[in-house]
Amino acid sequence: MTTLHTGATFNPSTVKPGSRRVLLVSPPVYDAQYWARWSQPAGLLRIATLLRGRGYHLDLLDCMETDAKGYVRKTQRKRGDGSPHIVVRDDMVRRIWHFGLPWDEIQRRMNALAQPPDEVWISSIMTYWWESTRDMVALVRRLFPQATILVGGLYPTLAPDHARERLGADVVLTGELHDASDLWTDLSLYQTPPSYAILTTSRGCPWDCNYCAARALNGGSNKVRGRTPEDVLDEIEDKMGRFGIRRFGFYEDNALILRGHLQRILELILERGHKLRLYAPEGFETRMLTEDLLHAMKLAGFEKVHLPFEALKWETTLGWNRRHASTASFERAFEAAVQAGFKPRSEEINAFVLFGLPDDKLEDIVDSALYIHGTVGSIIPMLFTPVPGTHIYQEQTAYLHGEMGWDLHDLNGKFLPFLEYNRRRYPDLHATDYLQLEALMSILNDGKFLSRAVNLCDEGVANRAFRETILSVI
Amino acid sequence: MHEAEVEKAMVERVGATGSSSREVDADLPSRSVHSAALRDADNVLLLNPPVLDTRMHWARFHQPTLLLRIATHFRTRGRDVRLIDALDHPIDDRLKRTRVASLDLDGTRINKWRFGREGTALVRDLRGLAAARWSPDAIFVACEEVFWWEGAAEMIATARECFPGVTIILTGGYAERAPQHATDIAAADIALSDPCPEVSVLPIDLSLYPRHPRIAAVTLGAGTRSAAEIVDEMVAHRATHGIRSFTFPEYRVASRLPSLFRAVLERIIACDLRCTLFSLGSIAASDLIADSELATLMRRAGHAQVYFADDRDEPIDDYMTGAFLEATRLAIEGCHQAGFPARTDALMATVCLGRAGEDLAARARLATSVAHHAGSVVFWPYQPSLPECPNVPLEDQNGKLFPLRTRNEATYRTYLELLGLTTVLNAKYRTHTFDFMGDALISRMFRDSVQRRAWEPDPSVKGTVLLPAPIRRD
After folding, report:
1. Of A106, A149, A247, A462, which one has the fewest beta carbons inside 10 Å?
2. Nearest residue of B to residue A451, measured between CA atoms
3. Would you say residue A430 lies in a domain?
4. What ipTM describes this predicted complex?
5. Does B462 touch chain A (CB under 8 A)?
6. Is some CB atom of chain A closer than 8 A to the CB atom of B411?
7. A189 is a domain residue
8. What span, in angstroms and rounded, lies between the C-alpha atoms of B91 and B97?
9. Is the pLDDT of residue B33 over 50?
10. Phi and psi, residue B373, nearest 5°
């Protein structure tokens, strides 16, 4: 019988030091592709800090730990009959891989624990990865039948009923474990210290974009709260001192809403003379990116900036309830980034372009890609995944689960869940057209010469001739 | 030819070419000294020098075939032959390079590199021979390109320092085309234009390398060897060194020796050699049209990658450009029918760039159209002959620097733009290039987007930097 708890009220008790053993697990991933960078299970590692402080003995099994080159293992996922697990969508076939430690290795490591755990805490991230969490629960149940199994993370928070019904865990935790929210990640559990650390210095976002789950993840609140910059610096220095880490990735909902928050963190880094490499792969709100802030980012060690451009047309962004984001504010942020010393056309400035949503206007997406190619140079294509807890998911539930009859693992953006939906606008649309769209963005991004992205939109002899030639077939 | 006759011919050639060398010109008796040195040389040292260039194409395919034939010549006579190849490197590693200069080409700065093992390592190798009480009686240095003379000069100086008094014979394209420079500036004792035609019929000796090469060059030379002899050499390389990859590096050899080339392919198929073949400019599109079965033979023989010969031999006019494009289209069509995959790197069309009198926009248009048919296209820099570049230092006559650019009233930057364009045309998404001129939905949308100049959107679609009023949700 699975019980549901909210992280706000769930409070692990303090125990006699070492009297209870907890195994923390980040499960493997079943997917067609996996991006191994910045994949540290930060939430689980903050819970580790909490539990350690309360006397628990901890072991960590991070199935997605990368090797020295930053890769995770992948093995072919097979069906019961031994055939390869593939997903066929229209004219597209995607092979499904098991990313991370294989099950026999996971079992071997669990069997090698000095003592069986009393509790097993499993973090589950993407809603469409829920199946590997289910399989992990089953394995743990078989190996450690006496252990209490708790599952938390984004998936149970966004789809608690699904998690309760489908995982077979003892406890499903929804939302943040509040007592752990502001704690530092515990990297001492890794035998080989990671080369980077994830920092979450704030939580919450005042906006409520149709496709984003931040509001749901923050318990329906639009309040933004932050840690003190001094505490963030203490964490950075602790990780520098203990693990030699110099690379830090900021994972925030919308840190810039807290005026001066990030700027102060950067100032402290500069004041203390730290030489760091900083990243914010999810980007910052363009409206709030001033030249002063970008200049501080550059000085403090940001090598790249990521700008959430998403779409060119204002009507599109307004349709997503993103009134705070516009191409006008994007252009201002881009110019500020250039002024601050980030080089365009060199992947120092990158912009996301979103596609794969219901009611996609493919012409607008191509326009967006070409606009970013012509200005910034570096496009990051973002295939949309409908996530429970978002407005789009709510609006499309009948289509996704009723009309199409899909489960959560089918809603992976890579499998184009809105392909059939978008045939209402484009009757001849095929899955490979979406692949071509992704290919176009990737190729526009990849064309480089002497480390600079080629600009097909410029007035140079070659690019003008290219445009004349391709237009000759219209 | 009998071995003794080969030797005699070689010695005679040394004398003949030696007449242009500084010593031999002035002192006839010394010619006989050189001849004797060759004839009586028991120990022969072969040196493949480093390369000074802005880029080093096809480094993994590079093999000093002339030196390796000379090796065969001497070893079959029982001589002790040693090889030091500055460009030898494991095929999976990048060739080492160090920056030696920053060139200013019409205001564009470009790095010039020294490719190959460090000078200290080469000195160590040479001194190692001396320390082992091994001393050469003659040293051969090969340099294929005139504009690579600096590497040859460095190698000669190093060899002379380690083995003073030993005759150093420079051979290859540099010695052939600039013998005076080779002796006066690079300080070779003898500039040997061509050891003798008979050497070109010998197989290459790969046993001198410290590890088995993974690839071997197959040359048809003047066509004096039979297909059986050529394929026997391949079979021997496979048996002795386990080599399964072979290159055809001779420019337009299939046009020059169509029957022999075809016979070689047929024999490879008949022998069931099961090898991977690479053609590096050895086949022209017109060869595939002239022989409609050639593409199938190439595929069956094991061709994995074909870089077609470019249009350097064609007049620069619209008619010939159109004919070249049509020939490419037909040839590629034939290759696809033969089983070569479309839009991958299996088929690479090439377009000549750098001739006097060319229109760069027309070249860019041709490359764009060629890429539409072939999937990939590279510009092959035109290498001018010495008389085409009077008063230009030899090292600057490098085709990659486009030494005839001023005659076209173009800057180096413009040529770079054309090279940049091909990086976009050749960029791949999951191994396939994008067809900007194709009929697929996204290709058409891209062209529409270009026609609308989507990179310059109307300000009305960009929205505002001011925060508009919230949107009411119903």
Report:
1. A247
2. B420
3. no
4. 0.94
5. yes
6. no
7. no
8. 15
9. no
10. -85, -45
